């Protein structure tokens, strides 16, 4: 679950680095994920949002995870929407993911990401994923949170930057 959360955060941060895009306000963000074509309002994850404290460095660090991706196959920006397609090679030979994401901004304090990912070849019979995330700025980070801190539901707080710095297991 942590790996998926980190990768979803990284994918959305990478998309959000284009110069033309509205930058997310630094501070505390509420994140709600949904998947498998379940509408965000009906998803069980809608009832259990995550909170993340971000700053510019956090977003740039997450974006760096996608340096291994090929240049975008598709790029379109029509304010306030942005669409991008990425092809990423996995560490396993002959495996790739092709993801297309659309971000819609509401100023710098809210956004919605819709993602469709195709796995080539399919893993365990699953070849496609669709879902997304909604983000809403809540204000300044509380005193007990620092940039990179992520709290998902009732789980203990983790720091994404520290998790990324750990050696792979």
Can you walk through the features of this model?
It contains three helices and nine strands. The chain is globular and about 45 Å long. α1 crosses α2. Helix content is 17%, strand content 43%. By secondary structure, the protein is an alpha+beta fold. Keywords: Signal.
Order of helices and strands: HEEHEEEEEEEH
Proportion in β-strands: 35-45%
**Range of helix content:** 10-25%
In total, how many domains does the architecture comprise? 1
Keywords: Signal
Protein name: DUF3617 family protein
Organism: Bradyrhizobium erythrophlei
Write the layout of secondary structure elements.
Blueprint: H1 2-15, E1 27-35, E2 50-54, H2 56-63, E3 74-78, E4 81-89, E5 96-105, E6 110-123, E7 126-139, E8 149-152, E9 158-159, H3 160-165
Which key phrases capture this entry?
single chain; 169 residues; alpha+beta; nine-stranded antiparallel beta sheet; 3 helices; 9 strands; disordered N terminus; DUF3617 family protein; signal
Give a brief description:
The chain is of the alpha+beta class and 169 residues long.
């Amino acid at each position: 679950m942590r790996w998926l959360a980190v990768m979803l955060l990284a994918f959305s941060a990478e998309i959000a680095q284009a110069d033309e895009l509205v930058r997310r306000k630094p501070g505390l963000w509420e994140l709600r994920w949904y998947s498998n074509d379940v509408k965000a309002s009906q998803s069980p994850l809608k009832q259990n949002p995550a909170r993340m404290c971000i700053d510019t460095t956090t977003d740039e660090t997450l974006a760096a995870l996608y340096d291994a991706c090929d240049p975008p196959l598709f790029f379109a920006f029509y304010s306030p929407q942005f669409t991008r397609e990425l092809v990423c090679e996995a560490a396993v030979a002959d495996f790739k993911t092709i993801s297309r994401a659309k971000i819609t901004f509401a100023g710098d304090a809210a956004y919605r990401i819709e993602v469709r990912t195709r796995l080539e070849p399919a893993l365990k019979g699953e070849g496609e994923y669709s879902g997304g995330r909604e983000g809403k700025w809540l204000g300044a980070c509380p005193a007990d949170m620092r940039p990179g801190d992520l709290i998902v539901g009732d789980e203990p707080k983790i720091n994404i930057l520290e998790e990324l710095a750990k050696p792979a297991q």
